[in-house]
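User: Teach me something about this protein's shape.
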Amino acid sequence: MTDMNAPMQADSAMRRSLSAPRKVAPPYEQIKRYVMGHIADGTWKPGDAIPSETEFVKEFGVARMTVSRALRELTAERVLTRVQGSGTFVAPRDYESTVLDIRNIADEIASRGHRHAARVIALEASGWPTAIDELELDSGPVFHSAIIHMEDDEPIQFEDRYVNPRVFPHYLEQDFTLETPNVYMVRVAPIQRAEFRIYARKPDAQIRRHLAMDIGEPCLMLWRRTWVGDDVATAVQLWHPASRFHLAGAV
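Assistant: First, the predicted structure itself:
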């Protein structure tokens, strides 16, 4: 997700993209969203048993393997827990909140008694196919921002974010030196759910320069997508120098 030079698209292309029909999610993804929706609205609470695979097959009119995939992925994401011979249950809330808690980096830095500053590298429209696919849109452009977050003038995070213009149509008009994208998006349209992955990666030369890293120094990279309703709202990569950053939490 480092296409810094994606060209600005014409206004007419933007209007076409905003009016284009939405891509229909595959059946297993529809089942996942159904389960997440029932958990989010409190219908199914932590520890509650959810319907059996047979009941999902009847409800959605799909093959058992489709249901199995949906429940297997939700189990891997720690949203559900499956007990042999007993069924499938909503995972404990403590773990769920650990997974879905999305903290604002400016608040994290302030909590340490330090000063946050941001430098915007890119704020533009992009037609990058991978980003369009991750946002589950039929066509672009999408919005793109690249921001360096600093703690007491030392860079600690490179934020490379793609945003759904249907959810945040005024994203490109914001000043992200005054508030982070996280603060802006939560204020405009709070997320309903998220998925993420964490990797140990070597950054490319561009990211390495922005983070003032030595050649060969590894990064901790967090990839995350968030949803507002049925729309994928944003897809972001957060790159952190391993020598200056760590993830912590408690369950």
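Now, about its shape. Residues 86 and 140 are 46 Å apart (CA to CA). Residues 27-40 form the longest helix (14 residues). If you'd like, I can walk through any region in more detail.
User: That's plenty for now, thanks!
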